[in-house]
Amino acid sequence: MKIVVTGTRGIPNIMGGVETHSEELFPRIVDLGADVTVIRRDSYVKPQVDEASGVRNSEWKGVKLVDVASPKKKSFEAIIHTFRAINEAKRLGADIVHIHAIGPAMLAPYAKMRGLKVVFTHHGPDYDRDKWGFAAKTMLKLGERFGCRFADKVIVISNVIKNLIAKKYNRTQDVHLIYNGVPPADKCDFPEYFAELGIEKGKFVLGMCRFVPEKNLHHLVEAFVKWRGENPQTDIKLVLAGDTDFEDDYSLSLKKMAKENGVVLTGFVKGQKLHSLLNNCACYVLPSSHEGLPIALLEAMSYNLPVIVSDIPANLEVGLDSNCYFPCGNVGALKDRLSQVLTKPLSRISYDMGKYNWDVIAKQVMEVYKEMM
Predict the structure, then answer these.
(1) Which end of the chain is more exposed for a tag (fewer CB within 10 A), N or C?
(2) Could you tell me the pTM of the whole model?
(3) Strand order in the sheet with 325-326
(4) Structure letter (DSSP) for residue 17
């Protein structure tokens, strides 16, 4: 069974929810016996080079990697890349092309026209994101429509999305609810990195996500500054881990606001640095106004962290205790939640992570592929 994947910027170590999803899922699909090729956008990836031989690799953890040219332009890079990826999938003799996200799904009819079977994973209604203008939102809605109408199988990552496409497109057949997952926590320390950042174990709040408007990190900065003003003796800091693909007015203003208020900015981090931040923070905060099913939140839960999240449907579906939520956009309420967590002794919480197991998820996706064959 030959699977070609598109709709992701690429793997490994590339920022983004779909990218993290693909990085965890597709090596496991290979282990289950499939031949998987991920088509990457060449502007985001660095060639994988074998350190011993100096030879450029064309695979990672068994997943074959093919880089195609794509312009790094927010408005249309996904569509151009997906068009070229579908042509490459046909050339490679793919049995199935797996399209991720609603923007790339606009080309599901083209993939069908090329004689390919199509799986479409709906990661969330991206047209609700604040960064898009009217034209982009219209195109994203069209992509959602085409993906839901023309794909042979649709995978959704939450019941919220499943209900949405049933209501909007009357699509209830061949729709599979398969959650995002999270790997086992790697509970490590990195004291040299903490010294570099100027933070201490257990004495920082962590915000971890992309620097885009709908994540509302500016609300987190505002709420933390208000809380710190009420607790002037505190040595707790705020750490924002992440960055943006496209530097814009929002990301620049957020970074400026953060620096003016003594917030620690790490940039995009993975591996031991990220694991040490997750292992040692006082709590994790996600104040976003839009999510599909946030992998970053699941990661924080896997480290048994107290979490504070906005009360949007995708976050509510995770099923946290009511005191973990605050009304989206309400900075005062977020400040109060921070106060409730930070004025208590450092704590850890045990969550039920059973349905977010990547090994189980990979088997569920493999069953979808087998049904198509």
Answers:
(1) C
(2) 0.84
(3) 264-267, 237-241, 204-208, 283-286, 307-310, 325-326
(4) H
